[in-house]
Design goal:
It comes from Lederbergia graminis. The protein is of the alpha+beta class and about 150 residues long. The protein is built from five helices and seven strands, in the order αβββαβααββαβ.
Length: about 150
């Protein structure tokens, strides 16, 4: 569950303003009837608000895959790498992303994923993996006092 003492929207707005990243989005785990789902709750640089309607099951979509595996996902060029069924990746389609990385956010020292941060660009030339890793590191520093942490690449 997310920490209510952190202003996530301001944090991701500031991180995006300091980088060449087009979109930063945060999805957090929520309990559903019999399972857990992930919802994109915060976004900076979004071109529309469709992300708010996306609900992902564990293992589905980018956030669901990162949540289930607990490992980052890097896609250097969507047109070359992405699974052919873009329907299962609604944030990629709705935000017109071409390059992205998604990192898990862990709670405390546990290995339990509580959320996912997505960093993306609408072209394949702007940001490299090291740029995404740098922003992720800055994000983790800001939230570390709250008991959240991340994963090393």
């Amino acid at each position: 569950m997310m920490d209510n003492n952190i202003d996530y929207q301001t944090l991701i707005d500031e991180l995006r303003a300091q980088s060449a990243i087009d979109l930063i989005a945060l999805a957090f785990v929520q309990t559903s009837q019999l399972d857990y789902v992930l919802k994109w709750q915060y976004a900076s640089g979004n071109i529309n608000n469709r992300y708010k309607r996306v609900v992902l099951q564990s293992g589905k979509g980018i956030a669901g895959l990162v949540y289930k595996s607990g490992k980052p996902m890097y896609i250097k060029d969507i047109t070359d790498n992405i699974i052919t069924d873009l329907y299962n990746y609604p944030i990629v389609v709705s935000e017109d992303l071409k390059r992205l990385v998604a990192f898990p956010i862990f709670e405390g020292q546990q290995d339990k994923v509580k959320g996912v941060i997505l960093l993306g660009n609408r072209d394949t030339k702007t940001s490299e993996l090291k740029d995404y890793q740098h922003v992720y590191t800055l994000f983790l520093k800001q939230i570390s006092a709250s008991g959240f942490n991340g994963v090393s690449w």
